[in-house]
Amino acid sequence: MTRYTLTLDAADVEDVWPKLAAGPYPVAHQLTLHYMTGGTCEAIVVAGPDAVARCTAIRGEVRRDFGDTVFANRLHTPTEPDEIRPCVDKFLTSLPHGLPHVRHHDPGTARGAFGRLAALPSSAIRAATLDVWRQQRRSGWHSFRLETAPGAHSTYLLPGDSHSVDYGMSVIAEVLPGLTLHQIITAYIEMDVRGESRLHSGTAEETLHLADRITAAGLFARARATRPAAAAATDRPA
Predict the structure, then answer these.
(1) Is 35 left (phi over 0), alpha (psi -120 to 50) or beta?
(2) CB-hemisphere CA count at 13 Å for 22?
(3) How deeply is 56 buried, as exposed, middle or buried, from its count of CB atoms within 10 A (0-12, 13-18, 19+)?
(4) How far apart are the C-alpha atoms of 40 and 127, rounded to whole Å?
(5) DSSP character for 18?
(6) Going by DSSP bridges, is the β-strand pair 153-158/197-202 parallel, antiparallel, or unpaired?
(7) Residue 184 · residue 157 · CB < 8 Å
(8) Closest CA to 211 of 199, 223, 203, 200
(9) What b/e readout covers 65-82, taking b as 16+ CB neighbours within 10 angstroms?
(10) How many whole angstroms separate alpha carbon 110 and alpha carbon 32?
(11) By C-alpha distance, which of 172, 140, 20 is closest to 69?
């Protein structure tokens, strides 16, 4: 029906992803704000009985061309009536015609931040995510790499879990209390861009135990030997 470019502010971002503005998703909220307000965006409004399928296809094309990491994949295709109505009202009626927009509230149902991550003050989260965003602007997503001490055996974080970013980061914060928030975010970006992130090195028993703890919480991890000579005897997906 229409297609145009625009620059989003914080309130606009929260209209598209209202659940991120709620308490359980502080890291995803801040990173999404940096990403979506960092330049020009494009709104595409599609009509017809196959509108959702067409929007989903467009989203897939954009992600194939530009989506290096989960934080660069903040495209939204609403699929439920309570999502579609406020988005259509905003991007087809309110913004193009300068009319008032009624904000939509969606608290979200996915598990969010808990434990050490949830206890961090909002100022610390804002500072860490801003630092991450500045590094991305300066050097790109591929510049993120979690530096851990080398060893014969390591535990690797793998992509594929369906939990919220904040829940997954909370798991890592609990099992590796020595990592800073910046390091945890770095691990997630590295996992997304490179396919894995080495979280910890140690003995075969230590790394396997850590991988078991991570997978028990619903994420994907594996422990394996990092030296080829030991791989055959100790490599085991967790």
Answers:
(1) alpha
(2) 16
(3) middle
(4) 23
(5) G
(6) antiparallel
(7) no
(8) 223
(9) eebebbbbebbebbeeee
(10) 17
(11) 140
Task: Specify whether the CB–CB gap between 31 and 132 falls below 8 A.
Answer: yes
Q: For residue 132, give Cα distances in angstroms to 20, 103, 183.
A: 18, 29, 10
CA–CA distance, 153 with 232 (Å, rounded to integer): 12
Look at residue 203 and tell me whether its pLDDT is greater than 60: yes
SS3 210: helix
Q: Using CA atoms, how far apart are residues 17 and 32, in angstroms rounded to an integer?
A: 9
Q: Return the SS3 of 20.
A: helix
For 102, other C-beta atoms within 10 Å of its C-beta total: 10
The per-residue pLDDT for range 100-134, each reduced to its tens digit, is 888 777 767 788 999 999 999 999 999 999 999 99
Tracing tokens 């087809």 back to the chain, one arrives at 92
Phi, psi of 36 (to 5 degrees): -80, -20
pLDDT of residue 78: 78
Task: Name the average pLDDT for the chain.
Answer: 87
Structure tokens at 231: 């791989």
What are 25-45's pLDDT values in tens digits? 999 999 989 988 988 988 999
Please tell me whether residue 234 adopts helix, strand or coil conformation: helix
- Give the sign of the dihedral formed by CA 228, CA 232, CA 237, CA 238: negative
Q: How far apart are CA 145 and CA 174, in angstroms?
A: 20
